[in-house]
Amino acid sequence: MDKNQLQDLKILSAKIRLDVLKMLEKRGYGHLGGSLSIVELMSVLYGKQLRYDAANPKWEDRDMVVLSKGHAGPAWYSALAEQGFFDKEWLYTLNDGGTNLPSHPDRLKTPGVDMTTGSLGQGTSAAAGIATGFRMKGSGQYVYLIVGDGELNEGQCWEAFQYIAHYKLNHCVVIIDENKRQLDGTTKEIMNPFDVAEKMRAFGFHVQKVKGNDEEAIDKAIDCAKEVEDQAVCIVLDSIKGSGVPYFEQLAGNHSVKFNNDEILGANHEAIKALESFIEGGSELCTD
Ligand SMILES: [Mg+2]
Predict the structure, then answer these.
(1) Residue 282: what pLDDT?
(2) Which tens digits make up the pLDDT trace of 102-119?
(3) Distance from the CA of 75 to the center of ligand 1, in angstroms?
(4) Does 209 reside within a domain?
(5) Given the DSSP bridges, would you call strands 172-178 and 233-238 parallel, antiparallel or unpaired?
(6) pLDDT by residue (tens digit) across 247-276?
(7) If you measure from the C-alpha of residue 95 to the centroid of ligand 1, how many angstroms do you get, rounded to a whole number?
(8) Which range of residues forms the domain containing residue 191?
(9) 258 CA to centre of ligand 1 in angstroms
(10) Is residue 286 part of a domain?
């Protein structure tokens, strides 16, 4: 990837992150931490790696995304809106009655969403089935399965992983968002997943663990996964829950945030200003 392409992806990431912050503030609450941790992944997928046609979301030869950690829907919706799947104004109807953008993704409501998710664990089986279908068709399409590290508490994940590994379904790119936190604490405290990368290796996967909020690292890992033959593939994202906004990275309860006090609103407005300035080309983005 050349410098210009990388800069384009960084701008797309900033736009997605900005949309997430604005739409959740408008809603008044929402799944902030887990949405922000996959912003760079969404940027690389929709900005470079995925095959799709935003004007024809049901294009038969498209690649698919299964966001098994469905509560991160706001990051997905933002990526879809930025790439023209639907009007950006829709973002501000998140979770309203009658909206096309429910809190958790619904394939019957949102252009570009191919699988309904949110009941944790179930997306893994769905993606395994989709990849099996692609293999039967011989079409070469990919499905990108995005799983949370807290979600690994669900036994169904491991059942699906065993199937994907056994059948060497390497067109199902399993991406685990290892942000080390889940709804009400750290994954280590709540239900220690131990060494996720080693576990996936033990299941038979080709595993890469990469910086999870770095477009270049994610892009390289996906390129590499596509080169792997005769083995299932997994990318573990070493990510930060709440990534890109220092205040939200530190906030203990950043899984679901209520925008109901001056401190939170102030931090959000500061982050929005920094992102807007970066997008306009007026500043470096500092996330330290
Ligand atoms: Mg997590």
Answers:
(1) 63
(2) 999 999 999 999 999 999
(3) 15
(4) yes
(5) parallel
(6) 999 999 999 999 999 999 999 999 999 999
(7) 22
(8) 3-279
(9) 19
(10) no
CATH number of the CATH domain containing 166 = 3.40.50.970
Ligand 1 center from residue 118 Cα (angstroms): 14
C-alpha 180 to ligand 1 mean position (Å): 5
Q: What was the pLDDT predicted at 234?
A: 98
Looking at residue 92, its amino acid is Y
Span from the CA of 186 to the centroid of ligand 1 (angstroms): 8
d(CA 9, CA 2): 11
The total of other beta-carbon atoms located within 10 Å of residue 43's CB is 27
Residues whose CB is less than 8 angstroms from the CB of residue 96 and which lie 6 or more positions away in sequence, other chains included: none
The strand pairing partners of 206, in sequence order, are 233
Distance 147 CA to ligand 1 centre (A): 9
Residue 205 CA to ligand 1 center (angstroms) comes to: 21
248, part of any domain: yes
Report the number of distinct structural domains present in the chain. 1
Sign of the alpha-carbon dihedral angle for 18, 20, 25, 27? positive
The verdict on residue 284 lying in a domain is no
- Listed as ranges, residues in the chain with pLDDT below 50 are 288
- Centre of ligand 1 to C-alpha 216, Å, is 22
